[in-house]
Amino acid sequence: MDKRTKIVLFSIAAVVLLIILIAVTPEIVKYVDENRAVAIVNGEKITKKEFAINYRSQINYYGLDKTFLSQKVGDKTYEQQIKENVLDGLIIRQIELQQAKRKNIALTSAEKKAIDQQIEQYKSDSQSGAEFKQYLQTIGATENEYKDQVIKSQIVSKLYDEITKNQKATDAEIENYYSSHKSDFVEVKASHILFKVNDSKEEATKKKKAEEVLQMIKDGQNFEKLAQKYSEDETTKQKGGDLGYFRKGQMVKEFEDAAFSLNIGEISNIVKTSYGYHIIKVTDKKQLSLNEVKDEIKSTIESQKKDEYYQSLLEKWKKEAKIKKFEDVLKSVSI
């Protein structure tokens, strides 16, 4: 091979190499940028890419746009506040994952397989598959990156369960809770006559009708028969408006407040809720015994104890952690 041929071949190779470099340079730059740290927690990096996925997921969940994000509350924009909250959440999660690793807490093969099956189920359905694909595009994640976030969340849940498993409620705590929350364990049985209001134009007409029926009741007409005739609650009208037993927190507030203020046999005035106008009659009221609600109270106390114990550990771990944030990288993330 003569010298001239070598020069030509070298020149061709150089041009090919240059073309390759030009082609891959944007991808290299993108890769380097996405792998910059937004924070380092005990020597472990939270990447810009991971932060961006979680940040965009929050923005997507609440349906926020750039106009809203640019608005200020105090000395910060909503964008700054949300970014700080998301980053703080990821820092806490990184600390939790480190604790899980120390305790050898990880997902089993079966648990990972269940995640894969759930993702495949999303994808196999034409509607949910399209929505899932669109969601990944919106948050800027690949399927594997999405799966990684799910795995991390489940590991944190396993850590919580393992660490808090000994937080139990004693019989004394259950009894004390019952004694101090007795009013929460009262059940009311009530019936109602509903006059539905579907739009504001019906307000006056429906209220007038409710007042007319209430006067019929006051004049001695039978509540149950009037419910069967006039109530617009198709579920209960044939039963004379009977709603059965319910406790506080099971009905809309206005209805609940009225029902629990009545004695057995009493009938309310007109009560306005988001459903329309009601006339309410209380037909029974009873105090649930400790035995009837013991399991519920036990669950409530243990849930509270677990949360408080775990939160105290989180605060301890965070104080002990070495955390460094990179505000310039944080600012560079956009939706």
From TrEMBL:
SUPFAM superfamilies (UniProt xref): FKBP-like (SSF54534), Triger factor/SurA peptide-binding domain-like (SSF109998)
Q: Does the keyword Nucleotide-binding apply?
A: no
Ligase keyword on record: no
Keywords in UniProt for this one? Answer: Isomerase, Membrane, Rotamase, Signal, Transmembrane, Transmembrane helix
From the UniProt record, list the reaction(s) this protein catalyses.
[protein]-peptidylproline (omega=180) = [protein]-peptidylproline (omega=0)
- A GO molecular-function descriptor: peptidyl-prolyl cis-trans isomerase activity
> Which intervals hold domain PpiC?
185-284
List its EC numbers.
5.2.1.8
Give one Pfam family.
SurA_N_3
Looking at the UniProt entry, the stretches that span the membrane are: 7-25
UniProt name for this protein: peptidylprolyl isomerase
Organism, scientific name: Caldicellulosiruptor kronotskyensis (strain DSM 18902 / VKM B-2412 / 2002)
